[in-house]
Design a protein that fits this description.
Length: 361
């Protein structure tokens, strides 16, 4: 029996922010040169329970053969099975000022036809930067947030079991040299805003009692280190200055995990929403057919498939100037699942009724 319910959703998280909050400048802005670097590598995940790549994934077979050859074991790739191995791309972000010996997190993503990376272990994988140099080495057990369960006639998949993470899974081998500290430093806002740039400029100047900050545009603030002050001490003091930052109307959607984050100032213009629930059920009931007695016929299994489609009716809900809490209550009343809520938000945005910036990860 195989059953598929396309109306089921996944985890939903809604966070409400206050209208304004006090935060450190170091949490919403970065200094020039204080940036991370992306790394990537190709590796193999072993130890899977029959959920790895198939024989048709040729690069996995060749990768295993090459690895064994380097270890002095000669094998015929045509006679290899790869169901317990998966080829993956490994990515990581090297933080600024990372030194050799530090550990960083890595993300592992299948590039073949593997079903799941659950229980697998990533073999030693070099991680390279855009310049082709190796900056870190990754290895460790892969942790995933989803699962896949299957049998002969049914399967159940939640989230994405072919993507996982390894906390502290890579060790830094090479340092990225940053430019030396200067007496004039640029401060970059993570979210450009002219009002926020001026607010930070005024707050820094007030704290130091002199004109050390000058906003160039909505994302850049030029800082001048006071005479006789160490640049590191100056930057540390600037980072610790707290300002009252107003919240922004923003909706963030992670389509892979089903997480939705709504800012406190998100509102909706008058709009009506109707959510339908469609359930498709497929039942396999094979029937054994016997031939008549003393006939030359043979016993055969004839497939019998029952297909049932059920669409549940949902009533329309009108949202008029809804706040975040009103939106959540209304969607809960019509029985919307998290995945349906994501589709509803995208449709409301397309209709011009969502007064917020919609970001899809």
């Amino acid at each position: 029996m195989a059953c598929k319910d396309i109306s089921k959703g996944i985890a939903l998280l809604m966070v409400l922010f206050s209208l304004s909050f006090a935060t450190r400048i170091g949490d919403i802005a970065v200094f020039e040169g204080n940036r991370g670097n992306h790394l990537v590598g190709y590796g193999l995940v072993v130890g899977l329970r029959g959920t790895g790549d198939g024989k048709s994934t040729l690069f996995t077979v060749k990768s295993i053969a090459n690895m064994l050859n380097r270890m002095g074991i000669v094998v015929d790739p045509r006679r290899m099975t790869t169901k317990n191995v998966a080829a993956v791309m490994v990515s990581a972000k090297l933080p600024p000022y990372a030194k050799p010996g530090m550990y960083i997190d890595v993300e592992v993503s299948s590039i073949g036809d593997a079903k799941s990376l659950e229980g697998g272990t990533l073999l030693l994988t070099p991680l390279r930067g855009p310049d082709g140099e190796v900056y870190a080495l990754a290895q460790g057990q892969v942790l995933i947030s989803g699962y896949e369960a299957r049998g002969r006639g049914a399967q159940q998949v939640k989230n994405v079991p072919t993507v996982g993470r390894i906390p502290n899974g890579a060790i830094v081998e090479r340092e990225v040299h940053n430019s030396s500290l200067l007496m004039e430093i640029n401060l970059y806002l993570e979210s450009p805003s002219f009002s926020l740039a001026k607010l930070i400029q005024d707050r820094i100047n007030t704290d130091f009692g002199t004109q050390v900050a000058h906003a160039i545009d909505g994302s850049t603030i030029k800082l001048k280190v006071p005479n006789g002050m160490n640049p590191v001490d100056f930057m540390a003091r600037v980072e610790d200055i707290r300002i009252d930052v107003p919240s922004f109307a923003r909706v963030v959607v992670d389509g892979r995990s089903g997480i939705v984050l709504l800012g406190g100032e998100v509102t909706i213009n008058p709009v009506s929403v109707t959510v339908g629930s469609l359930v498709v059920t497929v039942l396999e009931r094979p029937e054994v057919v016997q031939p008549p007695p003393l006939s030359p016929g043979q016993t055969a299994i004839v497939p019998r498939t029952e297909l049932k489609v059920e669409e549940k009716e949902k009533r329309a809900i009108e949202l008029r100037g809804a706040t975040v809490s009103q939106l959540v209550d209304s969607l809960n009343r019509i029985g919307a699942t998290p995945r349906e809520i994501i589709s509803i938000l995208q449709a409301i945005k397309a209709a011009g009724a969502l007064r917020a910036r919609l970001e899809v990860l």
